[in-house]
Design brief:
This protein is an alpha+beta fold and 183 residues long. It has one domain (3-182): Nuclear Transport Factor 2, Chain: A (Roll), CATH 3.10.450. Helices cover 40% and strands 20% of the residues. It has helices spanning 3-6, 18-40, 50-57, 69-81, 88-97, 101-107, 110-117; strands at 130-138, 142-150, 156-165, 175-182. It has a four-stranded antiparallel β-sheet with strand order 1-2-3-4. Strand 1 and strand 2 form a beta hairpin. Helix 2 runs parallel beside helix 4 (69-81), helix 4 (69-81) runs antiparallel to helix 5 (88-97) and helix 5 packs across helix 7 (110-117). The protein is globular and about 40 Å long.
Amino acid sequence: MNLTKRLGLSAHDSAADQGEVILLALVVSVMSEVKAQAESLTGSSLKSSPVIAQKLLAELPQPAATLHPAQVARIALALIKYAGSPASLSVTEKLFEFCTPKIKESFGSLPSFLRLLQAPTYAPLHDFQQVEMQPLFRSDRQAWQSVVVKSAAGNYHHFVLGLQRMTYGPHENCWLVESLNPE
């Protein structure tokens, strides 16, 4: 499968420029390396070596005003894909950085947020084989990214990722994840 399709981009996607592909390739390669490191450790657990996960995850971008909502959606999906991995707490911590204060307040802690991500509702998002990004709908402060994922079992599932552009605080003008719902 070519890199553009693997990352959920298409030839006619206006976001499929070289910078976008490089950013998404970085996300995929770092997350693949996190998974490989987890599998290579004794007992397949990064809990015994959180330093490895932290160093690899530190290479991923932070929330920034320069990231388009579609980029944030792709980063979030890449992180959710590995939320069921042995490195799940470290991955969830990185994903939590891309969530709105409302989401963080609702869940309160990383373990409770991780439990939600590991719920059966979101199982198709773990280790999905392919993602198709539908057209992004956006207003000045909100965006909705519909995605169709092909699960590891080969079934197709539709989700809508809600994003909000923050107007205050340390992430002012950054797009952050507000919701993730199956359709």
